[in-house]
UniProtKB/TrEMBL annotation:
It is found in: Cytoplasm. It comes from the Bacteria. L-glutamate binds at R41. Signal peptide: none annotated. Belongs to the class-V pyridoxal-phosphate-dependent aminotransferase family. SerC subfamily. One of its GO terms (molecular function) is O-phospho-L-serine:2-oxoglutarate aminotransferase activity. Keywords: Amino-acid biosynthesis, Aminotransferase, Cytoplasm, Pyridoxal phosphate, Pyridoxine biosynthesis, Serine biosynthesis, Transferase. This is Phosphoserine aminotransferase.
Length: 356
């Protein structure tokens, strides 16, 4: 039976990416060797890394603008540490926008390095919206925000203009919508939401912001060292990087971010229209801040849950239960999820009306 995978991460990738990456494990580039058994310094793998790094900048429109793309290990969670380590001056301070569990995780780590000013927070409303009306201290070393709040289903539609460097955790919506990416100085994203398997984290950094913290940074945590080594300071996560390259190539062939954004908007409109129309359901996040990637919604009557759960499972849907901190349901509609899968979910929601 065809599966419709709504998992929040790790999550669905394009079918052709699964097939090509599986093939590379058996026989990489017709070399008779597996991708997993060759040197990361071999010509073939160096080409993979170079292409992946270049394609990231191409797709984001950041070529020739002083940015470097890196594929690191340690997950987005390690970037919670690396960002302050590299950017917060000794005795300096950083500004953070607290929009969810991941933002709070980043704040926790930043506090280890210096003064951490939370300029806005929606914590008291269980993070159901993006705070507005905050101001960013001009003497902060940087401002950190989370573009998409995977757990709560909110997404920043605009970003503040500020003279301080802007750092953005884009783990769950990178490559999903057109933005002026040059408004950010440091972008990071765990691969496992919109790009590849778990095991690598994309970092896109403007080189001019580095080298100013006055800190002595351990080599593995130093963006400058990774840039100098062309993202090969140590053995990189070869399989996640290769698979990410395949996804980036898939996206480019499709027409890039502008093309996928159209599809993502169509999927989100289809589902949110049904959430709003169907009297059995309600959305969990403020309408203006709804995420096109992760739609969170609830049943108005919890008593309908057993029958709804049975129905969507029978339709081949997986990964729909909401995060425990929100409850209800979360439909993660990452780039590779087809519109047809959203239609299947909407049809089940409609059918529920006739059953209760
Ligand atoms: C999943 C996620 C993370 C954590 O990523 P790891 O790679 O598991 O460390 C951080 N931020 C956001 C927004 C996420 O969605």
């Amino acid at each position: 039976m065809k599966k419709h995978n709504y998992s929040a991460g790790p999550c669905i990738l394009p079918q052709e990416v699964f097939e090509k990456s599986a093939q590379a494990i058996l026989n990489f580039n017709d070399s008779g060797l597996s991708l997993l058994e060759i040197s990361h310094r071999s010509k073939d793998f160096v080409a993979v890394m170079d292409q992946a790094r270049a394609l990231v900048l191409e797709l984001l429109g950041l070529e020739g603008k002083g940015y470097q793309a890196l594929f690191l290990a340690g997950g987005a969670s390690l970037e919670f540490v690396m960002a302050p380590y590299n950017l917060m001056k000794v005795g300096g301070k950083a500004a953070y926008l607290d929009t969810g569990t991941w933002a709070a995780g980043a704040i926790k780590e930043a506090k280890l390095f210096g003064e951490t000013v939370v300029v806005g927070s929606s914590k008291n409303d269980n993070y159901n919206h993006i705070p507005t009306g905050y101001s960013i201290p001009t003497d902060a070393d940087y401002f950190h925000c989370t573009s998409n709040n995977t757990i709560f289903g909110t997404q920043m539609k605009t970003f503040p203009t500020t003279e301080v460097p802007v750092v953005c955790d884009m783990s769950s919506d990178i490559f999903s919508r057109v933005l002026d990416f040059s408004q950010f100085d440091l972008i990071y994203a765990g691969a496992q939401k919109n790009m590849g398997p778990a095991g690598t984290t994309l970092v896109v950094v403007k080189e001019s912001i580095l080298g100013k913290s006055g800190r002595e940074i351990p080599s593995m945590l130093d963006y400058s060292k990774h840039i100098k080594a062309e993202s090969m300071y140590n053995t990189p996560p070869v399989f996640p990087v290769y698979t990410s390259l395949l996804t980036l190539q898939w996206l480019k062939n499709l027409g890039g971010i502008a093309a996928i954004e159209k599809q993502n908007n169509a999927k989100a409109n289809l589902l949110y229209s049904e959430i709003d129309r169907n009297p059995l359901f309600k959305g969990a996040a403020a309408v203006a801040d709804r995420s096109a990637m992760n739609a969170t919604f609830l049943l108005n009557d919890e008593a309908h849950a057993p029958i709804f759960d049975e129905m969507w499972k029978a339709a081949g849907i997986s990964g729909l239960p909401g995060h425990r901190s929100v409850g209800g349901y979360r439909a993660s509609m990452y780039n590779a999820l087809p519109l047809e899968s959203v239609q299947v979910l909407v049809d089940v929601m409609k059918a529920l009306e006739t059953k209760v």
